[in-house]
Specification:
The complex is a heterodimer of chains A (295) and B (247). By secondary structure, chain A is an alpha+beta fold. Chain A contains ten helices and four strands. By secondary structure, chain B is α/β, with parallel strands linked by helices. Classes of the chains: A alpha+beta (295), B alpha/beta (247).
């Protein structure tokens, strides 16, 4: 206990001695955390949206004619062979017409005089939820296209392609902002620790002469790195929460909240981000100590 | 009466120190200082007094020979264990090694902080030492604002603050007037009587001429024990006050 009290006192003194560079480091760390977590928040919400859309995802296989029961069985066997399918439903022309009527609602009169079998029969294929990547859906669609009697396979291709391109872009942005976070935290913290080491050179020499252990000399610098990470990441996350609430206020409305449910990170994720940033700062501090502190 | 032979606290066997490229600072010095002994190291400037103290406190490694301090082979002591040696030694440096931006109290407390002494005990000891050295008013003054003589006393206070087993004082009275010199010597004698082994490097003859303790003279890095100044020529260790108590 006494050890930590003494170490904390030394750490606070170090930080006060180099308060200007400490302030710069805190600002840089919090900005990096803000940038990274902002994009990560968008990505996480996009994934949630994707998962919700996955529930409605289905591939509609239009057929040229009504398949007889043995043919239906043959289709079922061939489609289930793809083993990523949750269930399949056969929709004949009459069912398709009925659905279309329901969709039109009060305007169903426009269908007056139209034959009930003008819509082609189809098979609705519901892929299992893990099948979330575009390439797999594409591959499945191509496979379905090869089945005999298939006119067309439809699955909202263009929309899904755009959505997955966006997800891919977000992944790249997250990797880049994550790299920025790693670089800024480790380099800035290492630089600040180096400045502190230089400003306390005389004292460190004296500490060695009066019998301080290596841990006694090193620990305040590691604590300094940890504090920089904790404070920087904490303020970065607080800034993100403010930004999040501001955005929610600006775009508040029943349509946006139901179509795009935008949620903040859960507490474990917040703690994980703050913990990772703190760890990175400790690593930066450790590398500076190894390079510049000759014991 | 204790008839057991005196226990060696510092033992130097044929120690030499050569600074690069070829500066021979110390040559073949063999010396034993017993526990509780007070010894004066004299000699002209450049005779090797400071080098000898630096070798004992492992600020330097010997080029040749063996140094044993409190049972530790100083030259072979691994870096991670040097603090064990340094905690047994309190050293008053010739250049004081004070932190000019820190207060007098902080400068003295630093030696006690590294061994995690309680804050109240540190403060009490600091005030006590400052009183003994007539520096009570300077408790909160910055070390850099003090005169040379005051800085020297702060350095001595720091050296003795932890009640070390060994005190090495390099020219401890070089900047002091007669009265203050007497105070400093009184402080050192008091620690010696309580069991501390003390080596005082000085070229101030007034310090040891009237004193009964052993005097070793260094000349051009070699040792010679001046007969006239030895209290007892037959006694290799001279007369020393045995330890009253272990601290």
């Amino acid at each position: 206990m006494r050890f930590f009290t003494v170490m904390l006192r030394h750490t606070c003194r170090n930080m006060l001695l180099t308060w200007k560079s400490q302030g710069m480091t805190l600002f840089t760390v919090s900005l990096s955390v803000l940038i990274f977590s902002f994009f990560y928040l968008i990505y996480a919400n996009a994934l949630h949206l994707g998962a919700a859309l996955d529930d409605d995802l289905r591939l509609i296989v239009y057929l040229d004619e009504e398949p007889p029961p043995p043919m239906q069985e043959e289709y079922r066997r061939k489609i289930l062979k793809f083993d990523q399918v949750e269930r399949i439903e056969f929709v004949d022309s009459a069912q398709a017409f009925k659905r279309f009527e329901q969709q039109l609602g009060d305007n169903r009169d426009v269908l007056g005089g139209v034959p009930a079998d003008f819509l082609p029969p189809s098979i609705e294929v519901y892929p299992i939820r893990s099948m979330d990547s575009l390439s797999r859906i594409k591959r499945f669609s191509d496979y379905l296209q090869t089945l005999p009697g298939v006119l067309k396979v439809q699955y909202g291709k263009e929309w899904i392609e755009r959505f997955y391109s966006f997800i891919q872009l977000m992944r790249v942005v997250i990797i880049l902002s994550g790299s920025l976070l790693i670089m800024t935290t480790t380099f800035m913290v290492a630089h600040t620790i180096r400045l502190t080491l230089l400003s306390r050179q005389q004292e460190l020499e004296l500490l060695r002469l009066v019998g301080a252990t290596n841990n006694y000399i090193r620990t305040p610098f590691l604590l300094e790195g940890a504090l920089q990470g904790l404070l920087g990441a904490g303020s970065g996350m607080a800034a993100l929460l403010l930004l999040f609430n501001w955005i929610k206020l600006q775009f508040a409305g029943p349509a946006t909240s139901s179509l795009l449910p935008f949620t903040f990170f859960s507490w474990p994720v917040v703690l994980l981000i703050v913990g990772l940033a703190t760890l990175l700062c400790v690593i930066g501090s450790f590398s500076a100590i190894r390079r510049f502190l000759q014991l | 009466m204790d008839t057991s032979p005196p226990e060696a606290m510092i033992d130097l066997i044929k120690v030499s120190k050569i600074y690069p490229p070829e500066v021979q600072a110390i040559t073949d010095i063999s010396l034993t200082v017993n526990r509780g002994e007070l010894l004066f190291l004299t000699g002209m400037s450049g005779a090797g007094k400071t080098t000898l103290l630096r070798l004992i406190s492992r600020m330097e490694k010997p080029s040749k020979g063996m140094i044993d301090v409190a049972g530790m082979d100083v030259a072979k002591l691994p870096q991670c264990k040097i603090h064990l040696l340094r905690r047994k030694i309190g050293m008053a440096y010739q250049d004081f090694k004070l932190l000019p931006e820190r207060t007098v109290a902080d400068n003295i407390a630093i030696a006690m902080e590294v061994v995690y002494r309680p804050k109240s005990s540190i403060e009490k000891r600091t005030r006590d030492l400052l009183e003994q050295l007539n520096l009570t008013q300077k408790y909160t003054a910055r070390a850099g604002e003090l005169s040379r003589g005051e800085q020297q006393r702060v350095a001595i206070a720091r050296a003795v603050a932890n009640w070390p087993e060994i005190i090495l004082a390099d020219e401890p009275t070089g900047n002091l007037d007669a009265d203050t010199t007497a105070r400093v010597m009184d402080l050192l004698h008091r620690h010696n009587r309580k069991g501390a082994t003390i080596l005082i490097a000085t070229h101030d003859k007034t310090l040891y001429q009237q004193d009964t303790h052993r005097v070793i003279e260094l000349s051009f890095g070699r040792m010679r024990a001046p007969q006239a100044e030895m209290p007892d020529a037959d006694d290799a260790y001279g007369e020393f006050i045995p330890p009253v108590s272990e601290v």
